[in-house]
């Protein structure tokens, strides 16, 4: 059964079929193998896959990200970071890292955040004398913080698929996200001296305060989201609605950079991105249902039975598996395919599902930086107009430090679980 499922899935993907359709066909193949083929089951599970209230958060966070970029929130975040650290040697790199964290706390989409930040900062960094390969690698590495710091679309999909509390996942992702940012700062400090760059003039305290005042409304959004979730004022889905309405209001009324005539275009872009994710989720539920019916998790548990008393070994094996899969598959389908199989293993081994969820999403986020599929890599290559080979020359120090952070989180679970108590 495992061979039929994996073989049909990888075979259809190798033929160039979109992953959502590949998931459907692998489900059909498994149904034929089990002798239970019924087109009504496929249709019902497709509908049930999309008919899930927590998934409503995805379109609204997508819309919030689009409104943020079009309404001037993104530019003000970059300007604020520039006024604070732009005068330091390698300052634009630190601006990119700080902005990545702030962007991550607004939209939760690695691709959207990377595209917005890269379009603003990569031309500035090249003009100031920074190596384009290294600059592009830093922007890409900072972009994958988005699925880890709340609000995270990756956590939403994992929470819906696994039944784990999305709010707890959001809170548990804060400290690991900050650790990734600190790691990037350290690695950038080591490599930035190689470039002979123009240093930005130091801003006075008055200029810094002015930039903070201009970016105040952008900074208030993550405070509202995290505060509302922490205080139990709203659910993650309701937080997404608040974020979308707030971003639209700030862009239209306060900053006035977002025009009413642009709303239709923003809505269409958000709808297109949402449709891709939602169809993937719906198609994956067909496979998830069949995985359960075929009792594949029990078979996997049986294979790993000798390791059940060693949770660390299981975590290391799973993370190695996800890293390998991440080189060939995007984040969303990886979550949807592996979560139903791995969660019973995790529960049997006595590993906290929230802790595992954080590790799983970080690992999948790193997969966005590994060729040949690496979605974030492709986005940055398109913006900076360099090849995949060139960006890999510049990204390796940052990719290495992100893997080191993942290993630290595996070896020291308290780095995730203890801070979780601070927020919950």
TrEMBL record:
The protein's UniProt keywords, in alphabetical order, are: Cell inner membrane, Cell membrane, Membrane, Transmembrane, Transmembrane helix
GO molecular function: any one? transmembrane transporter activity
Write out the annotated subcellular location.
Cell inner membrane
Q: Does the keyword Membrane apply?
A: yes
Primary location: membrane
List, alphabetically, the Pfam families matched.
Answer: DctM
Superkingdom of the organism of origin: Bacteria
GO cellular component entries: plasma membrane
What membrane topology is annotated for this entry? Multi-pass membrane protein
**Which spans are transmembrane here?**
6-34, 93-126, 138-158, 170-193, 214-233, 239-255, 276-296, 308-328, 335-351, 357-383, 395-422
Q: Where is the signal peptide?
A: none
Domain (TRAP C4-dicarboxylate transport system permease DctM subunit) ranges: 7-414
Q: Which NCBIfam families match?
A: dctM
Q: What is this protein called?
A: TRAP transporter large permease subunit
